[in-house]
Amino acid sequence: MSSFAQTPVNSGLSPASDTLLRAYVASLAVAAVLMACVLGLMQHSGGHVWAVLALAAVAALSERGRVQLSGTTESSIALLPVIFAAVVLGPFAALIVGAASLLGDFRPPYMKLIVYTSTRGITGCLAGIAAMGAAALVQNKFAAIAAATAAAAVVAETADTGFAAATHRLRGNGTVLNEVRVIGPLVLAALPLYVPVVAILAAAYTEVSPWTLPLFLAPAVAAQRLFGLYQEQRELAAELRSANARLERAGLSFASALVATLDARDRYTAGHSAAVAAYARDIAKRLGLTGEEQQLAHLCGLVHDIGKIGLSPGLLEKPGPLTLEERRQMEEHPAVGERILANVENYTEIARIVRHHHERVDGNGYPDQLTHDEIPVISRILAVADAYDAMTSDRPYRDAMPSQVARLRLAQAVETQFDTTVVAAFEAILAGASESYRDGRTALWEVERRPLLVASATT
């Protein structure tokens, strides 16, 4: 894989930095010219001129098919024909093929063209020298070609990445390490894939017939297409992550707005919902649920009581015990909450969980009398978190219970009202938690409530 910057080489630099960069460009050009002269005197391509021209054309076409890796970096498969030339034709031919790879993109700014023409030529020369050295160490012809190809590929990729990183650093586009982080993973993934193919084609060229060179075109085109698909996949994955993040933020904002609406009726409820959301998320984490399920537990905790919006005025604030009819109305709030949330796009699963957060594992809960595993696991988590915070909070008709008493009541209700595993997980959390966390008096709830307060201020 070959890499270079897509912005002007001397864009926006200070005079001192621009001078340094110009000196760097001049030194590269001089080094490339000297290498070409020396190698031209020592080696010639003879009857392989047509092969050099063909490989140069492939390199130039490959360079025109570059794909963008980052805001400042593009890459292509132009090094493949350079490596092939280095193995079968030597350093001089590889230098020519490398330098010619930019001919298909002959346009301003010319300083950038000089930089990358020079570095590609130098890279080809170094790859050719490495190939000759590796081949000389092995007696078997095919093993020598394989060794030469591997050596040429490693040297070419290292030199190309190094030149690209140095150029980016001198242009002020970031550190060398950042550039290596962008290019490095792709190089490491590509080497094991293309080195064997280039080695086989090089063996066919040298041991069978030079007329096998056209066979190089098909893998080169396929590699370029694969490279393009890889980049498209990266872009799609990035877009999907971004879309998911936006949906998550939108979902939390919507949930906050709903709870802020309920908070306007009952000041207790929003604080309760924030606490239940935090407790539920912590229990889900303790149970080993995925990060996505932990976020879902948190979101469901925020909106689990939203159905109370539909209760009769005064019912939530009633200081004494509820009548049978009032109890029946209160038990409608999970179903009401489900109906509200089911009308929201992407809230189907949340609506289902909210509907069942008052079910009991013995089947005596409401609204559907589900038992054990019939109850969604996050609903079972919410049931424990909801009950605990209700017991440890002041209510209109009673004072808050001490944490130890509430935990004892949870333990007494396992396998009747609550899931044993969920209660055990929550107990483990509470045993190692601070006193303010256990009593529900912690700054954490203020952090949880912050989006609710913002939503309330904007409605």
Query: Tell me about the biggest sheet?
Result: 3 strands, antiparallel
Give the class from helix and strand content and strand pairing: mainly alpha
SSE ordering: EHHEEHHHHHHHHHHHHHHHH
Instruction: Measure the end-to-end span.
Output: 54 Å
Give the fraction of residues assigned to helices: 55-70%
For the largest sheet, list the strands in their spatial order.
1-3-2
Shape: elongated
Chain-wise SSE layout:
Elements: E1 2-5, H1 15-42, H2 49-64, E2 67-68, E3 73-76, H3 79-88, H4 91-100, H5 110-136, H6 141-171, H7 176-208, H8 217-263, H9 267-286, H10 291-303, H11 324-330, H12 333-342, H13 348-355, H14 377-391, H15 403-412, H16 420-431, H17 435-438, H18 443-458
Antiparallel strand pairs: 1-3, 2-3
Short description:
The chain has 459 residues and is mainly α. It has helices at residues 15-42, 49-64, 79-88, 91-100, 110-136, 141-171, 176-208, 217-263, 267-286, 291-303, 324-330, 333-342, 348-355, 377-391, 403-412, 420-431, 435-438, 443-458, and strands at 2-5, 67-68, 73-76.
